[in-house]
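User: Can you recover a sequence for this backbone? Please restate the input before giving your answer.

Assistant: Of course. Working from this structure:
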């Protein structure tokens, strides 16, 4: 199964199905699921698909579930509700190679185990399970307003 914000497609010439990719700038970033739930990204991606249009070692297609590219709830869109100058996780502009897009293929068995466990926990939450403190859900109606410290409705 593909996991929103974790599953990626890659060129099979350079990457194998099941490979893990670490993107440190994503660790701890908030992402919005299609149903409005918000959770914390583990900082890892897994190659779950390939595609003929994905050509090259550094090209990936990020799966975001049923959200369209320009929808505000799509956290990887330039329009994403969590994208600000200070906190951008947009993956939309493939012409820009910024530090936030720096990644590495996970090679050590220790880090592979960590990536696997982190993604499994993220997936449990996506599928309606209970999230641990590291992936705490923030209900859409209970988000904290940074200016006032109160909730938004």
């Amino acid at each position: 199964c593909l996991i929103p914000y974790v599953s990626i497609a890659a060129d099979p010439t350079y990457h194998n199905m099941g490979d893990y990719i670490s993107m440190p700038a994503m660790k701890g970033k908030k992402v919005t699921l299609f149903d409005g739930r918000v959770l914390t990204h583990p900082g890892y991606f897994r190659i779950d698909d390939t595609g003929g249009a994905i050509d090259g070692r550094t090209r990936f297609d990020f799966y975001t579930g049923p959200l369209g590219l320009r929808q505000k709830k799509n956290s990887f869109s330039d329009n994403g509700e969590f994208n600000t100058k200070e906190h951008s996780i947009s993956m939309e502009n493939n012409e820009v190679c910024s530090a936030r897009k720096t990644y590495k293929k996970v090679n050590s068995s220790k880090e592979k185990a960590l990536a696997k466990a982190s993604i499994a926990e993220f997936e449990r939450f996506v599928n309606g399970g209970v999230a641990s403190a590291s992936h705490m859900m923030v209900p859409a109606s209970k988000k904290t307003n940074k200016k006032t410290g109160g909730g938004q409705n």
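That completes the design. Confidence is low (pLDDT under 50) at residues 84-88, 133-153.
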